């Protein structure tokens, strides 16, 4: 198959490179960041000069972009995917998008006879590198089945959730849980360390006890090193949780843990940590208590 890949940052980069490394699909890449494109062309992908060039002739066009407004601009904006995509081609959005934006783009694509799948991913940059990420997909089942060979070239866990938009809802639920777990882990580590425990021993115990979670290891690794360089930016996590809370509002579902965690993220962003890793919510506690988990 021919694949057009737009947005090769922290997540899109390794996903795109895995398609190149692990399959015979021909990949054409576009990103505003030339250095990011080079990490893919070095392995055999072809660089496109524009969104149109990455779109034309591809069987599947994929995006992995930061915010819903970016996905909107790249799909529906001037010179966007919609302007150059044609019948028989499929558009797949791998970003964590807003359900309402997924539906808006899906409707615009459908009006031109183009099928769309929303296919957000989970597993972080490590999962993207190892091709172990989960992909939760919404959209027509036949379109999903046809796209599977491409999706499976960079993921061992591809799940069809239902109609367009359902992949995104699953992703927002997952990320709300992940961020609540990270916030709880930050509190727990500060409590233990303030009580005088050795953080390494505490982390070892929790890693093998019922307080563990998928976010505990990445958060505690960053806590011990004191390096909060983003593999998943706090600004993006804040966006995801905002979208989950918006969905809760719309559906009348109380999200107390989610709302409290969102406020914690807001504090961290207020401290200027938006571009740091999402685990830097711990920095709020460390700063307030004038103490770090790192010994
Ligand atoms: P990122 O900022 O590292 O990468 C985004 C890339 O998109 C950048 O290379 C940027 O140059 C490019 N880009 C932005 N606007 C563009 C445009 N108009 N045209 C072409 N390229 C453009 O972000 P990321 O961490 O890779 O996240 C991408 C998406 O995946 C987000 O929706 C995020 O929420 C989601 N996600 C991220 C992670 C993670 O751990 N980082 C995990 C799961 C899902």
Structural features, described:
Helices cover 53% and strands 13% of the residues. The protein is an alpha/beta fold. It folds into two domains: 2-162, 3-Layer(aba) Sandwich (Rossmann fold), CATH 3.40.50; 170-289, Orthogonal Bundle (N-(1-d-carboxylethyl)-l-norvaline Dehydrogenase, domain 2), CATH 1.10.1040. The strands form two sheets. Strands 3-2-1-4-5-6 form a six-stranded parallel β-sheet, sandwiched between helices. Helix 1 (12-22) packs parallel to helix 2 and helix 9 packs across helix 13 (256-270). The longest helix has 29 residues, at 166-194. It starts with a strand and ends in a 6-residue tail after the last helix. Nicotinamide-adenine-dinucleotide is lined by residues 6-12, 30-33, 36, 64-66, 70, 73-74, 95-96, 121-122, 124-125, 231-232, 236, 240.
Run of helices and strands: EHEHEHEHHEHEEHEHEHHHHHH
Examine the coordinates and then state which fold CATH places here, giving the name of the CATH topology of the largest domain.
Rossmann fold
The CATH superfamily of the largest domain appears as NAD(P)-binding Rossmann-like Domain
Q: Outline the biggest β-sheet.
A: 6 strands, parallel
Q: Identify the strand order in the major beta sheet.
A: 3-2-1-4-5-6
Beta-strand content: 5-15%
CATH class of the largest domain: Alpha Beta
Report the mean per-residue pLDDT as an integer: 97
SS-based class: alpha/beta
Number of strands: 9
Q: In total, how many domains does the architecture comprise?
A: 2
* CATH architectural arrangement of the largest domain: 3-Layer(aba) Sandwich
List the ions, cofactors and other small molecules found in this model: nicotinamide-adenine-dinucleotide
Which ranges are low-confidence, i.e. pLDDT below 50, for 5 or more consecutive residues? none
């Amino acid at each position: 198959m021919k694949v057009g890949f737009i947005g090769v940052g922290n997540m899109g980069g390794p996903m795109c490179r895995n398609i190149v490394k692990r399959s015979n699909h021909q990949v054409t890449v576009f990103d505003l960041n030339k250095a990011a494109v080079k990490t893919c062309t070095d392995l055999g992908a072809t660089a496109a000069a524009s969104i149109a060039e990455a779109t034309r002739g591809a069987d599947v066009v994929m995006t992995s972009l930061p915010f819903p407004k970016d996905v909107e601009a790249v799909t529906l904006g001037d010179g966007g995917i919609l302007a150059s995509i044609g019948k028989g081609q499929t558009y797949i959005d791998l970003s964590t998008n807003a359900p309402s934006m997924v539906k808006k783009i899906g409707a615009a694509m459908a009006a031109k006879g183009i099928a769309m799948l929303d296919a957000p991913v989970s597993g972080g940059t490590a999962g993207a590198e190892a091709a172990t990420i989960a992909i939760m997909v919404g959209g027509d089942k036949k379109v999903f089945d046809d796209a599977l060979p491409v999706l499976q070239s960079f993921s061992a866990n591809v799940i069809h959730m239902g109609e367009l938009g359902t992949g995104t809802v699953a992703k927002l639920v997952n990320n709300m849980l992940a961020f609540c777990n990270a916030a709880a882990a930050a509190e727990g580590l500060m409590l233990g360390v303030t009580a005088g425990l050795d953080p390494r021993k505490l982390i070892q115990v929790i890693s093998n006890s019922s307080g563990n979670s998928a976010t505990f290891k990445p958060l505690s690794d960053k806590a011990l090193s004191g390096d909060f360089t983003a593999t998943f930016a706090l600004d993006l996590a804040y966006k995801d949780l905002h979208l989950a809370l918006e969905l809760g509002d719309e559906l009348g579902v109380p999200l107390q843990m989610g709302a409290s965690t969102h406020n914690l993220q807001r504090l961290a962003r207020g401290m200027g940590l938006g571009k740091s890793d999402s685990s830097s919510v711990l920095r709020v506690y460390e700063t307030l208590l004038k103490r770090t988990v790192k010994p």
